[in-house]
UniProtKB/TrEMBL annotation, chains A, B:
GO terms for molecular function: metal ion binding; prenyltransferase activity. It comes from Duncaniella dubosii. Keywords: Magnesium, Metal-binding, Transferase. One of its GO terms (biological process) is isoprenoid biosynthetic process. This is Polyprenyl synthetase family protein. The keyword Acyltransferase does not apply. Belongs to the FPP/GGPP synthase family.
Length: 320, 320
């Protein structure tokens, strides 16, 4: 196995080597801009590492890895239009920098391009890779739809929330891991365990995201703290508080943004009084444990297993 | 060979048999609504007929045929958002009936679903079918981008316009014909000639669309006449008039909509004085002849050839 940053370098090189057409510039420039955004590149790294762990050169899965990264960036682009978000990773979003039409059309082109990348050197795995990729994509759209549906509801259950984040964010990490194993000719059970590892990792990752949005250090987190609270976003924290806060403080503050700082402070106070910071970390730890348990079902070298265990443990304790 | 309406019945049955998930309704209801729109179903019929003409049962290509129809409807859905169109085939567009977010997300799901359909029973042709389909999709996006770029230009040339409509609308008809031939195990040259037949048919079809928008009978055409003129749309007619109208009447009317009826009448007067109605029909006839010439390069039964010749001749003389 290699270090995370070595797989990352392979991914970044492959993205830099992509030769998109120059014209029409209005279609392809926004795609270059979006891919050039930085980002953790967690998904393609997982794909290369899973492929390597299953005994093949990591670059065997490189086209499928960047197909998944392209897909991920496409979803961010279209999500930003739907959320009317102004900024993504410190830069104007595509629909702000260009316009809404450009953002929709360039996103469509990214989705088709991701399928084209997926097919490159897929060989005998093409049909399976497409099934995994397309099925995952449909899950992501379903998750996004549930997320939008939840905006108008106060009765979202924890089970509904966990299913939404499983669909919207976790299955794509599962897909990345499973895709790497598939491209390494791994048996179906190993692909499935890698998929499940990724899903559990994704759930832990999203819950940590929810935690950091309210409790993170603004300097390391990279964006303002409390955004989810001000947007009344139905996160695990808010859903638990709506359910358990007997005084109805949280419910009374939903939809009220005349005093943002006070709202954040009051709602965080409820979270604290219910012990939610500790309880979300117990839950995160449970998903990390489940992720690691999946690894035990896969026949691989100890150093490969360590790579994925370390990654899981780090994602549970990350501060950005 | 069968009649057009018999292939159409197969297509409509296959679309009716599609089993999309029920939930989340916000994602899947707009897809059902869009597919239920009617429409000519020209592309999937071409795919089944080309497959049949090449000696296989038409239903051999049915999944690929409805994949292309699904893709076509996806492009209409997203185009309507980009154009902020209120009505499509006599019904509210998805973003009017629901909202912009729903229209974007449901469209994305239709694009992924079209790729899933394409893969069903594609067998050994999967890689080729995907190449043809994805390459065509990229062309369609490029054409849409050029079309949007042209809105801000008065110096669009006829060559640029023909390339734009080739990309935006014609290659998808070529793709449908080529896909049918591919699924029938036809040799590559026959696939290519079928593709070229479809492209030429598509160019004739679009030019006839341009003609009908200005010169059609409102009762048979199904929408108000003169919409392209009022939108200053860079059609073949407008581009030719901008180039040849020495008095500058057309140019002086661009962007002015205070008297719509007079604008339509004046610009149509210029078209008439330049003989454009006759000249566009000469051009349409030339593309139809090119389409028919492609058929001569394909080894098929006379009744199969007649089917495609009739279709081409009808599309050049259609009034709706």
């Amino acid at each position: 196995m290699k270090e995370f940053d070595e797989y990352l370098a392979m991914v970044n090189q492959a993205i830099a080597n992509l030769r998109l057409p120059e014209r029409p510039a209005g279609l392809y420039d926004p795609i270059r801009y979006t891919l050039d955004c930085g980002g953790k590149r967690l998904r393609p790294v997982l794909a290369l590492a899973a492929c390597h762990a299953m005994g093949k050169e990591p670059m065997t899965a490189v086209h499928q890895a960047i197909a998944i990264e392209m897909f991920h960036n496409f979803t961010l682009l279209h999500d930003d239009v739907m959320d009317n978000a102004d900024v993504r990773r410190g830069r104007p979003t595509v629909h702000k920098r260009w316009n809404m039409e450009t953002a929709i059309l360039s996103g469509d082109a990214m989705l088709t391009t991701s399928t084209m990348l997926l097919a490159i050197k897929a060989g005998e795995h093409l049909a399976s890779a497409l099934d995994l990729f397309n099925g995952t994509a449909m899950n992501v759209y379903e998750g996004q739809q549930y997320d939008m549906d939840f905006e108008n509801r106060l009765d979202v259950t924890v089970e509904e929330y966990m299913e939404m984040i499983r669909l919207k964010t976790s299955v794509l990490l599962g897909c990345a891991c499973g895709m790497g194993a598939l491209m390494a000719d791994a048996d179906f059970d190993s692909q499935l365990q890698f998929f499940n590892y990724g899903v559990n990792l994704g759930l832990a990752f999203q819950l940590q995201d929810d935690y950091l949005d309210t409790y993170g250090n603004p300097e390391t987190f990279g964006k303002a703290i409390g955004g989810d609270i001000l947007n009344d976003k139905k996160t695990w924290l808010l859903i638990m508080a709506l359910k358990e806060d007997e005084k109805g403080i949280v419910k009374s503050l939903i939809g009220k943004n005349d005093n943002p700082e006070e709202k954040i402070e009051k709602i965080r106070g409820v979270y604290d009084s219910l012990g939610l910071p500790d309880r979300i970390h117990e839950l995160i730890r449970a998903y990390i444990d489940s992720a690691i348990a999946c690894l035990d079902q896969i026949n691989m070298q100890p150093e490969a297993r360590s790579f994925f265990i370390d990654l899981a443990l780090k994602s549970a304790t990350r501060n950005k």
